[in-house]
Amino acid sequence: MSTVVETEEHRALRAAVAALGQRHGRAHDREALWAEAGKLGYLGVNLPEDYGGGGGGMAELSIVLEELGAAGCPLLMMVVSPAICGTVIARFGTREQKARWLPGLADGTRTMAFGITEPDAGSNSHRITTTARRDGDDWVLTGRKVFISGVDIADATLVVGRTEDARTGKLKPCLFVVPRDTPGFGRRRIDMELDAHEKQFELTLDDVRLPGDALVGEEDAGLLQLFAGLNPERIMTAAFAVGMGRHALARAVAYAGERQVWKTPIGAHQAVAHPLAQSHIELELARLMMQKAAHLYDAGDDIGAGEAANMAKYAAAEACVAAVDRSVHTLGGNGLTREFGLASLITASRVARIAPVSREMILNYVSHQTLGLPKSY
Question: What percent of the chain clears pLDDT 70, i.e. is strictly above it?
Fold first, then answer.
């Protein structure tokens, strides 16, 4: 894919990560790849240099995830650990929190999950019912979370709760670091059809007692801190989807160029070639919007990045699902075999349409925020 809009440094990073991904490939060992990517500085490329990171931003981190995905070995926890949790702590954490967490998040020796989704709240962050109350110098958290990735392999989870504003009495979102083995912090694995290394969990917080310094950032910052993590999440989900779509498309193009039925490679037929060309175009367009979103976020334009990140996530998810579908269809029966590894992407590609926010909620966002249309809710 073309990289003419990228800097020389970005092109070098893309080539280096692509080479790493190709060495590990589709049958990769997740722990080995994670460790090597961390050692090479790719996992923390967005985090501050003072804490062992690369001093870059979402532009660089999205390149890493996209290229690993294109090689067939995406690391889903990159969306969560360095992108969401690392960004939030780097922007709003205390000096002690940064020193405690960022070096490990940067080199991959520590990971952090992110807990926001709840059974009854869906995409509505205003309906989060996990509450945090003061008890002396401590915080006490109570609530439930669902579809939280990688809790079992994470050292801690950055949990979104709500605290009561002393002035208004209204609840506002706050973020807390909850170590994995904290008493009262329970988890139950959710049985998923999706075959991924990172498992999904339902969490219960039963009067989980945390020290005062578990709160990340200011108690009054509210939505500012929350969306500081959600915009990177959308950008990285777009990178995840673009990479997956590229991987599927590359396998289909290779197959179409070699497979012969009537003395001619099937890729010579427009009915096969045109859908693949269309997917290439759609993935290129999605990547451009992802790059725009990353640029705006790294430049400090949170409002502009919010719009672009939502659009990028939408475009990338749609392009990914279409690319996987067309690629499987190009291979025919072979597209459903384990040998070619495309059938599993049918399920995996749907994730980008559903999480972290559904395509319909993004359309709502664009309808209201961009076009100024009235809300239906």
Answer: 95
Cα distance between residue 144 and residue 373, in whole Å: 34
Residue 375: phi and psi, rounded to 5, are: -75, 150
pLDDT for the residue numbered 193: 84
Pick left, alpha or beta for residue 357 (phi over 0 → left; psi -120 to 50 → alpha; otherwise beta). beta
CA distances (Å), origin 340, targets 252, 275, 312:
10, 19, 28
Q: What is the reported pLDDT for 3?
A: 46
Neighbours of 322 (CB within 10 A): 19
Structure tokens at 257: 């160029």
Please give the Cα distance from 172 to 308 (Å, whole number): 25
Report the C-alpha dihedral over residues 322, 327, 331, 335, rounded to 10 degrees.
-80
The length of the chain in residues reads 377
Percentage of the chain exceeding pLDDT 90: 81
Across-strand partners of 209?
Answer: 140
Nearest alpha carbon to residue 233 among 338, 126, 74, 77: 77
Nearest to 377 by CA among 124, 120, 121, 118: 124
pTM above 0.90, yes or no: yes
